[in-house]
Amino acid sequence: MFQQDPADHVLEVGLKDLWYPVCPSSFVKDAPISLRRLGYKIVLWRDPGTGRVNALEDHCPHRGAPLSLGMVLGDRLACPYHGVEVRQDGVVTRVPGSPGCKLEGSKAARRFHVQEGAGAVFVYNATDPHLEAAPPLRLPEQLTSPEWSSFLCYTEWGCDYRYVVDNVIDPMHGAFLHKQSHSMAEGDISAEFQLRDTPTGFVFEKKGQRDVNFDWTEWMDTGIHVMRLEIPYPKTGGPGGNFSIIGSYTPITNRTSGVFHWRCRRVTGWQRDTWRFLYRNRLEQRHWDVLEQDRVAIENMEPDANRREHLYQHDMGIVRLRRHLKNLAKQQVEKAGAPA
């Protein structure tokens, strides 16, 4: 019987003590919603008084009924099965059927710290189910600076999220898979690559080719794992220079990924309005077409494709990133197994 490497299992469901995007903000409205993410079923809801998004494991600590089917009571949910009320910090505040029982006042549910930004809901995947405070969410300037404007493009792909990461750290596929694209038709189909370290990660880039095609990818760890790349744009694409893409990818199951891409340009004032109009009316569908090419290629790879590879020089970025993530997973396994 196949026994999974503990570090591989950690990677499959998502490294701990990191922020992850879990859905667009528009998904969370008046009623609770239930999402499978990061090896959990998570319920998210908005406090009607503050508008704040809260998240718990979608599992009532009494009998395991889904809290997502219950009633919103501000910062609490009332389980539909027996009315047990659970606060956003995981504390059971009321047991109507047995007032004063030992369940009341206990931290019996897994909580998730939540932040909203750039049109998405982010949760902190803490090792500690009752972590009092999470570190701040640090997103790239493209998603936080008033000098930038962005659109979130969210979709779900039928593959392990690590295949999406491999796809983005591989600039060379752009010259082949996307060669008919309006923005990736130029540049050589052969190239030599190099790795360059940065304060938060590394850049994998083509030597001697810049601002021609999909020429480089940056991987960053700022308490959230994100990837950044640029696609050169002609003047017909509107103001703002190169088109930046910020990506972050979240495991749903080992066969489904949450794929978040923010399309960004450095624009302010009237240029911002022009760019946003052009994007919605002329460019957005083209970008979805490019993503669809990626999706079809990756979803049709066998689940064990990465176990039967023959890698070469173009794949240095993939090798570097896989090794780094595997080392992070091993450290978490060792920490979890260490004596208290």
By CATH reckoning, the class of the largest domain would read Alpha Beta
CATH topology of the largest domain: Naphthalene 1,2-dioxygenase Alpha Subunit, Chain A, domain 1
Q: Quaternary arrangement of the chains shown?
A: single chain
CATH-derived architecture of the largest domain: Alpha-Beta Complex
Query: In which range does the helix fraction lie?
Result: 10-25%
Q: Mind telling me the C-alpha Rg?
A: 22 Å
Which overall shape is indicated by the principal axes computed on the Cα atoms?
globular
- Sequence of secondary-structure elements: HEEEEEEEEEEEEHHEEEEEEHH
* Count of separate structural domains: 2
Could you give the distance between the termini?
32 Å
Protein name: Rieske 2Fe-2S domain-containing protein
Domain Rieske: 19-123
InterPro entries: Cholesterol_7-desaturase, Rieske_2Fe-2S, Rieske_2Fe-2S_sf, VanA_C_cat
GO molecular function, one term: oxidoreductase activity
List the helices and strands and how they pair.
Layout: H1 6-13, E1 19-24, E2 33-37, E3 40-46, E4 53-57, E5 71-73, E6 76-78, E7 85-87, E8 92-94, E9 111-112, E10 114-117, E11 120-124, E12 148-157, H2 161-168, H3 174-177, E13 193-198, E14 201-206, E15 216-221, E16 225-231, E17 243-253, E18 256-266, H4 269-299, H5 316-337
Antiparallel strand pairs: 1-11, 2-3, 3-4, 4-9, 5-6, 6-7, 7-8, 10-11, 12-18, 13-14, 14-15, 15-16, 16-17, 17-18
